[in-house]
Amino acid sequence: MKRTDFLRLIALLPFAARPKKMNAIHSLLHALAPSEKMPVLFLGHGSPMNAIEENSFVQGFRQAGRELPKPAAILCISAHWETRGTLVTAMEQPRTIHDFRGFPQALFDVQYPAPGNPALADEVKRMVAAAPVGLDHQWGLDHGAWSVIKHLYPEANVPVVQLSLDYTKPPQYHFDLARELAALRRKGVLIIGSGNIVHNLGLVAWDKLNSDPFAYDWAQEANARMKSAVLSGNSEPLVNFRGQGKAFDLAIPTPEHFLPLLYTTALQEKDEPIAVFNDQPVAGSLSMTSFKFG
After folding, report:
1. Contact 125, 135 (CB under 8 A)
2. Strand partners, 274
3. Contact partners, residue 157, CB within 8 Å, separation at least 6
4. Which stretches within the chain are classed as H helix?
5. Is 192 in a helix, a strand, or coil?
6. CB 232 within 8 A of CB 238
7. Residue 141 gets which letter from DSSP?
8. How far is CA 93 from CA 28, 115, 129, in A?
9. For residue 228, what are the CA distances in angstroms to 91, 121, 171, 258?
10. With 257 labelled, which of 55, 163, 164, 279 sits at a CA distance of 20 to 30 A?
11. Would you write out the chain's pLDDT as a tens digit for each of its 294 residues?
């Protein structure tokens, strides 16, 4: 929208409606204005306790935040929002969802009051041609989003929108859908995938949960092969993760924590630098490995 058109639109608004409407218009212009290309992040989010603990992973998130240009908005694909069909949050003020149990009250007390961005949600809906995208007004920010984003932007001053994972669709669907969102990188939007590339809670070595980094052989193999595929720009074994053998099958017993990686690798551009951080195993069967593209 040109500045002259923007001013004309303001002039046509009824006076009483201007504050609300002007906020929406400013949000639209701010979120979707052309920008330098934003990076893309895949964050291994691990335990919800990373939201309130002080550890090396949290330090890695904070360092990543310091190195990022401040975005106009964030689009987050979290392992913890699975739906039938693809949805995008479209409320102005998403709630903080405590989608876990058995943790200390201090974790349930955490609120992350980042605003939403309905204009960005509308843009995502418009951009995706492969499937209909529904606008959601109920969900909010689950812990796959807020537990890590709070370390990137602790003041909660960047709007956050979540995109759901359609659990009925194959990996290729998610990879292809992500590619349709590539233009957002040049509109001030930071795209974040939040999951874990190795995530098998059924095989966690609980006696090693608080010990030095430890990984089973299969977890080490899967993590190394996945990391190699990402760094080489070879998406085939990632999209076809069910055809990669036992190590991958054990690392990805269910796909929801792995699929956010596909959303980020799909957005990787040719010869784009990739940084690896938080590359450590936890309790044998989890990996916190995280990537920054660009």
Report:
1. yes
2. 293
3. 114
4. 3-12, 18-32, 56-67, 105-108, 118-127, 143-152, 171-179, 217-232, 236-239, 246-251, 259-265
5. strand
6. no
7. B
8. 15, 5, 27
9. 38, 33, 19, 15
10. 55
11. 333 333 333 333 433 333 444 444 444 444 467 778 999 999 999 999 999 999 999 999 999 999 999 999 999 999 999 999 999 999 999 999 999 989 999 999 999 999 999 999 999 999 999 899 999 999 999 999 999 999 999 999 999 999 999 999 999 999 999 999 999 999 999 999 999 999 999 999 988 777 778 999 999 999 999 999 999 999 999 999 999 999 999 999 999 999 999 999 999 998 899 999 999 999 999 999 999 999
Question: Two tokens at 269?
Answer: 């551009």
Query: Could you give the C-alpha distances from 66 to 49, 60, 110, 147, 285, in angstroms and in order?
Result: 22, 10, 22, 17, 30
- CATH of span 36-293: 3.40.830.10
Half-sphere exposure of 139 (CA within 13 A, CB side): 26
